[in-house]
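Please go through this protein, sequence plus structure tokens, and consider how the sequence yields the tokens. Keep your notes short.
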Amino acid sequence: MENNKVEVSGFSVRLLRVMVSLIFIVASLNHLINTDKAVAKMDQARFGTLGHLLGPPEIAVTVSGVVMFVFGIAFFAGFKTRLSAIVLICVLVPITLTVQVGQMATIGPLFKNIAILGGLLFFVLNPKLKK
């Protein structure tokens, strides 16, 4: 089988990483500053009850905010990029399943999260990119 190689601009990889990281940094601040609003949004979602399975939703929202902030900053800086992407995926998937799935009136945020997942997967699947 032929080894398919694609040349990618280092600048484009850095730009993608920085742009994807910003959503997590901004969302983390929302989780930490407006915890009550984030909990209310989860409670109003069709599958919001899933957010209560692991305990009080305020704790889940706060922990997810801290994790998104720490690993969002690490991802932004290019520090432990693959690990940061994996951790951010582990936060993004439950939030997407809990809050976005089933919200047919606002389907755009579901596909926004799917696009973000694609950006994170790029860095998980291409660990040799040290950009």
Summary: The chain has one domain: 11-125. Residues 11-125 form one domain. Residues 10-33 form the longest helix (24 residues).
